[in-house]
């Protein structure tokens, strides 16, 4: 097929396709002569219309654009081209040397030059009406009869009638967009049917590719090269990831989707043409777009960088339905392949980062003891990280499905809720992984607790850290993943730690009073008073430096200690103090009243140590302890 351009002064002759495509006529001489006369008349009619828009004839109108000037004349022009093509098919089948056929060929070349120019002008001057956002809002334009090609019909209604056809529910911009798209479709179908498809497609590809490339550039998408990523610092790369996610959502859902819809509409008459067009316009840019996540995934893997990686994977997963819908044909299958490669690379990188995170917990060698048995920084950082991970359950469930724990998880599974529904079954592997990560932390905390020389401090340390773990699970998405069974079992464990702390820290005080009610002599009573006061002072001075950051746990420990200690001492105090009424320096012998004990206990676990030189002669200034339910003296 010969090519031409409306920028060229010379034009090739139109050679019609096989006459078999033209409707056959009856073979009788009368009908044949009648049809020949009709076809020649068609050529003459077409000549008057086409030459009006030929710049080389005196009748040429000075109007720049046929389609902008009069839609009625534009439709008439398209119809004349269609009729001219039919006439040429007939004439070539009758007499290939016919002067009328030569005239028709010349007219067809003039018409194609005009339509090529119109096609270029419409594409160039209506970018605002063909922007991807306007086009992508018309997803049914190719199939909805309401948007049938107005140019290809025999209806002579004016432009306002065509706009009515576009539908009252769409905006004025979208209405204008529908009309422009219909014009392009009519021209494309006319040129392709007349054998000038290559010229039409060439213009379309050049203009629309520049729009797609320019749109991505405005979104901050550049040509990505793997070698450059090794030189980018993480802060800059993280910023690029955030920008890419925003750009990809717009690029896929609006830019590429709109371009696909426009291409499908304009070239709806030819599957191969529209696939080829879309390939030339979008393939290179879309593959480059999805190379970015792959390059990011290849960078150094550490758990600190896992969240931007999961954001990337979530973004591609969210766009996957659009990706499959837009890039479904074989010509652009490479785009889906690149997006899938990026997803797989991201999954591997994220799993590697999770492995690094687990290893970081296990290899933590911090030997510095947390003052007062407080919360270790490893507990805070690990639980902050794990709670943040739980927000990405959708991403992680896919990864854990591909990378199950290589351990016997029967013990872990007993800690998490048994799945009932299909969705719960899907999340069960995720729950087991989170349970495992927390178990790794708990085992590490057990090791760190052994570094305390004071057993009571070890138990308090374990209680404090487990309390933080439980509260983090309870207040985040982890609760949905691990379930109430996990919480209940670990709360029981917390209670055991707290009970062991009380025994180790306060048992000497509890045992300093008589175990059973008995009658004591004054001397025996004095011995018990001294023994109790000494045991309480020693325990209090040691425990005053202990810290319990969680208010609920702190109050529960105070109440528990007081309930075990104060009532017993109150009864002993009430029974034997009168017996010692004649003793000199009784305030030295009996230094604590029952109410004093409550006040002292109420000041515990704030990490404010009392030294041996401190006086125990005055009661604590705290008065809030009585509100906790202890018996007052």
Count up the domains.
Answer: 4
> What percentage of amino acids are in beta strands?
under 5%
Fraction of residues in H or I helices? 55-70%
- Give the low-confidence spans: 1-31, 140-156, 165-170, 617-633
Class derived from helix and strand content: mainly alpha
Give the oligomeric state of the chains in this entry, treating copies of one chain as homo and distinct chains as hetero: single chain
What is the overall number of helices? 23
Radius of gyration: 43 Å
Q: Considering the protein shown, what is the CATH homologous superfamily of the largest domain?
A: Exocyst complex component Exo70
The number of distinct β-strands equals: 0
CATH class of the largest domain: Mainly Alpha
What do you see in this structure?
Residues 134-145, 614-624 have a biased composition (Low complexity). Belongs to the EXO70 family. There is one protein chain. Mean pLDDT is 80; it is low at 1-31, 140-156, 165-170 and 617-633. The protein is mainly α. The longest helix has 33 residues, at 234-266. The protein contains 23 helices and no strands. Helix 8 packs antiparallel against helix 10 and helix 10 (234-266) packs antiparallel against helix 11 (271-297). The chain is rod-shaped, with a radius of gyration of 43 Å.
